[in-house]
Design brief:
7-stranded mixed beta sheet; binds coenzyme A; Serine_acetyltransferase; 5 helices; serine O-acetyltransferase activity; alpha/beta; 16 strands; Ser_AcTrfase_N_sf; 37% helix; transferase; UDP N-Acetylglucosamine Acyltransferase, domain 1; EC 2.3.1.30
Length: 209
């Protein structure tokens, strides 16, 4: 089972990283793949309640790959951790199949309470470089989280979210129109007054010339 997972991780890199050449090169030289291999073993020990060995493996993996995956995290198949440096995946995080995670991504929690506190990513989710997804909520299938976004709320399937805090800008590939700001009656009266003042001053200046 673990060997099959490792093979799918290598295939994922070959399919989705245009720079990848052979399976052997990916196996030997891609630290994202190494982190996933270490994690598959660490997670096995975690599931069999050998928490110290599980944490030890995860710390060794972090030392060699600069990718920190808690042994409790549940990762699917065909995950691509590209470049990888600085990726942090928390204990109760879940990552679906065929997700792509770039360098500097955090799947983290907010606060210190125990229990489910990290996000759950659906299948085919792309998390851009430096993005942070914080909290125990779900991100739907086929979502894209922009580079450097900070996502604090759940997303439906097929949504692209950008910014801090991240907001949906596309659904099913179609742009979501930006919210128009409504002007209150008070603001409208103030603006009207300002325009009248400006008009009056303009007339005065024209008369002086
Ligand atoms: C979010 C992302 C997937 C959007 O891709 P897209 O669907 O092609 O979207 P567009 O390029 O049409 O951009 C749509 C809007 O989002 C904005 N946007 C895109 N990326 C953004 C980002 N990272 N932060 C803030 N706004 C962003 C664009 O400026 C545009 O705004 P506008 O409509 O006001 O002009 C992509 O920009 C991204 O961030 N990918 C991550 C790539 C990455 O991390 N690569 C690492 C390689 S090492």
């Amino acid at each position: 089972m673990i060997l099959k997972d490792i093979w799918l991780d290598i295939k994922a890199v070959q399919e989705r990283d245009p720079a990848a050449r052979s399976a052997l090169e990916v196996f030997l030289l891609y630290q994202g793949v190494h982190a996933l291999i270490w994690h598959r073993f660490a997670h096995w020990f975690y599931c069999h309640k050998m928490f110290f060995i599980a944490r030890l493996i995860s710390q060794i993996a972090r030392f060699f790959t600069l990718i920190e995956i808690h042994p409790g995290a549940k990762l699917g198949h065909g995950i691509l951790i590209d470049h990888g440096c600085g990726v942090v995946i928390g204990e109760t995080a879940e990552v679906g199949d065929n997700c792509t995670i770039y360098q500097g991504v955090t799947l983290g929690g907010v606060g210190t309470k125990k229990g489910k506190r990290h996000p759950t990513l659906g299948n085919n989710v792309m998390v851009g470089a430096g993005a942070k997804i914080l909290g125990a909520f779900e991100v739907g299938d086929n979502c894209s989280i922009a580079a450097n976004a900070v996502l604090l709320k759940p997303l439906e399937d097929n949504v692209t979210a950008v910014g801090i805090p991240a907001r949906p800008i596309k659904k099913d590939g179609v742009s979501i129109p930006k919210e128009k700001k409504h002007v209150s009656l008070e603001e409208y009266e103030e603006l009207k007054q300002e325009v009248e003042d400006l008009k009056r001053r303009l007339c005065e200046l024209e008369k002086k010339e």
